Amino acid sequence: MKMRRFLGVFLLCLAISTTLSVSDRRCGSDVTRLWLDVVIIVDNCSIMNLNLVYETISGLFNKNLQIGTGYTDPRSTRVGFITYNYNATDVADFYKLQSWADLDSQIQRLKMTPLARTTLSKMDTALYAAINMINSTAGFRDNYKKMVIVFTSVHGSYQKNPPKDVSKILKARGIPVVTVNTGSSSDTQSYLKNIASDNMAYAMADGNATQEILKAMTDTNCFCQSQWAQYQYPLYAPQNRYGTCLISTNDMVSDRETARHFCHQHFQNGYLVNELDQQKRAYNFAYLNSISASPVNAFYNGLVTLNGVWFWDQPDGRPMLPLDPNSGAAPQRSACVADMKYSDGTTAWTPVSCTNKFRFICEKVACDTDNYCENA
Ligand SMILES: *[C@@H]1O[C@H](CO)[C@@H](O)[C@H](O)[C@H]1NC(C)=O
Ligand SMILES: *[C@@H]1O[C@H](CO)[C@@H](O)[C@H](O)[C@H]1NC(C)=O
Ligand SMILES: *[C@@H]1O[C@H](CO)[C@@H](O)[C@H](O)[C@H]1NC(C)=O
Ligand SMILES: *[C@@H]1O[C@H](CO)[C@@H](O)[C@H](O)[C@H]1NC(C)=O
């Protein structure tokens, strides 16, 4: 009886999993393979709430994470520390901590250091110090994303410029700024919200700060090289980005085979774009139209047929991906299909002659914890 019920549940799970929709890969999130340069800033004025700060910081760095540089696998993370009150102190620059043990003992030392006597807390001094720390490493590890994480419980003052204006300099350079309110003041929380990047103002008091910061770190580590667009939905929704990158050469049209060859020859590990679900199709149209001077109503995707079976194009050396019925039904008798948008706004995979010339999109996997990229 029990066994039969178990089997029933098992079969039900199977049934559910086969009807699950397919979609593009999510960003890699292996916390042992982050490759980042992180500046950690900790307020140490006398009224700072340090509760759980160093436990949270410890929790960010998995014991198997390579700290520092010089490893065979280039996926390693450098960590710098700055403390501040009315002035900022560089506790550790990007060159100091060269192993997980170094990092751990630095954290323990900071934990033992008493707070400063002053109540003054001027975050702009620390953000400027972070900019200098990042600048001083320019030319080395430029392909590694930088990020800044600030811990404070205090709505402080400033020395030269409001902290939100200094953080803008970082954000404009593509460097995310995470803030963590270590106290319970809602005034501090709204002050920090203006300093942090979108959706990166966290609080110790709600949720799991370690988990939130780690998510921000793996998200930051997931990016596309210059000229490539990162698949996200809707078109400008960095909070919902996927681990694939797209590119389309301006106004270039070609027949299907030339398009496919172009993606493989011009881009390392490139292939013709996949369209695993309706959302990706909507994105592909939106992306092409966002970069084109005139409306694009047709383009080639990577759907190809071999002996009557449909597959998605994949990088050289990788087997092609069979078309999942949940992605859509391919036409019965045609060698080539193109994405078409009709006058009523609907879109469909439409049989076309393979010699028709259309726009096309190339795709490749994003740089993330699973895929190291030599160039930024
Ligand atoms: C703050 O620190 C900088 C650099 O360490 C130093 O030049 C400056 O004099 C300090 N300012 C104050 C007010 O202590
Ligand atoms: C706090 O700040 C003072 C002055 O900047 C510094 O000497 C001290 O080491 C700092 N303490 C901690 C815990 O960071
Ligand atoms: C840091 O580097 C950026 C980009 O190279 C530059 O624009 C900026 O002026 C530098 N800032 C400082 C304080 O050196
Ligand atoms: C917070 O998240 C981290 C990382 O996922 C986890 O190790 C830790 O146990 C969580 N803490 C709590 C209190 O849930």
From TrEMBL:
Which UniProt key words apply to this protein?
A: Signal
A Gene Ontology biological process in which this protein takes part is: innate immune response
Where is each C-type lectin domain found?
Answer: 241-363
KW Ligase (keyword) present? no
Domain VWFA residue range list:
37-217
Q: Enumerate the Gene3D superfamilies for this protein.
A: Mannose-Binding Protein A, subunit A, von Willebrand factor, type A domain
Query: Which SUPFAM superfamilies does UniProt cross-reference here?
Result: C-type lectin-like (SSF56436), vWA-like (SSF53300)
Q: At the top level of its lineage, which domain of life is listed?
A: Eukaryota
User: What InterPro entries is this protein classified in?
Assistant: C-type_lectin-like, C-type_lectin-like/link_sf, CTDL_fold, VWF_A, vWFA_dom_sf
Stretch forming the signal peptide: 1-21
Protein name per the record: CRE-CLEC-65 protein
Q: List the lineage, top down.
A: Eukaryota, Metazoa, Ecdysozoa, Nematoda, Chromadorea
